[in-house]
Amino acid sequence: MDRARLEAQLAELPLYQYEFLTPDRLTFSERIRTVCEQECPMYNTTWACPPAVGSVEACRARCLSYPSVLLITSVAEVQDVANMDETLATRGPHEALTRRVRDLLLRCGAEEVYGLSTEACAICSQCAYPDAPCRHPDHMFPCVESHGIVVTDLAEQCGIEYLLGDAVVWFSLLFYR
To answer: 3-class DSSP state for residue 8?
Structure first.
């Protein structure tokens, strides 16, 4: 992969921060999945969320099967970070940015990219789950937390400030080979 070319193109995007990592730096926890199950209204309603994404162990194995991962973040300003409707309404630009970075990875020589991004997928007005396969598997990015990944550990490892007052820091992980 042409990393210099990729980094030159990443510099032109509205990224807050990015970091090249190896997947073995990720922390996986069943506790994160428990939070999904007990607190997220999207649990068991979409292909991008548990249990459809598989067990935490299966997700861990999938992520660790890739030799490299690119962590990207973006920031969205909000009036009140505690207002979940307002906060979630800022996801769209980050999802579009994640798609752009995935496409850049492929154009710069990555053979395969597996992306994880923000909350549940919002491509379709009604997800086909569980009655039919995902209509857009090439566009859907499962949620980072759906895989049991502890984002706060990763942010701290990489020196990413994620508590920015009334701003939301969105995270994506793009695994590639």
So the answer is: helix
